[in-house]
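seq/struct pair 1
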Amino acid sequence: MEYVIVHELCNLVHNYHKQNFIDLKNKEPSDWKRQTESLEKSWRKNKINLYP
């Protein structure tokens, strides 16, 4: 859940997922890659496609 909140807060500053967004997101949480993979794994398991 923390990952989603941080991600959305970063979206308030940078609308697009370009390098400046990634740089900001990299500041917190420190394990965002693991959290991203876990979230995407859950989406695949539940057959949720958020990237059509």
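seq/struct pair 2
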Amino acid sequence: MPAHVPDLVHPTAPSWPRRRMRRLRAAESLELLGGTPLGRLCLVLYGTPTIRPVNHVVEQGDVLFRTHAGSAVAEAVRAGDLLVAYAADDIDPATRLGWSVVVNGWATPVEDPAEAARHLARIDSWIGDEDGVKDQVIRIRPEVVFGHRVVVEEEDDG
């Protein structure tokens, strides 16, 4: 016979107001994504799902990030037909309110040197790039954009 399992609800757990997920339009989702510098690139490398934190910018609906030309990500993109997901969010741990955006699309290298240089000047590397090795810019052209905002049910206007 299994032992009795005690109630795992903490006696001082706060009483949270009811929340719901409100779907966002693609334009609002991309605007939120463009307002935060760090996200997560999700892709399959060597047959295994992989998630990498990267800095990004959003320009004309595309998500752009930098990596070094010899990275596994850059090599996978150069091999062609790389479908990726890109995610970022801003959820307040105290209120449990915020937003989450996921972009699904094809990743391609930015080949034009002038365009790549312009983006490199705008995208900081979250781990630093003093030696300038993160010189490859990758573009994600969204096919699907999923965005949700977590709201208090009473504040949800539809």
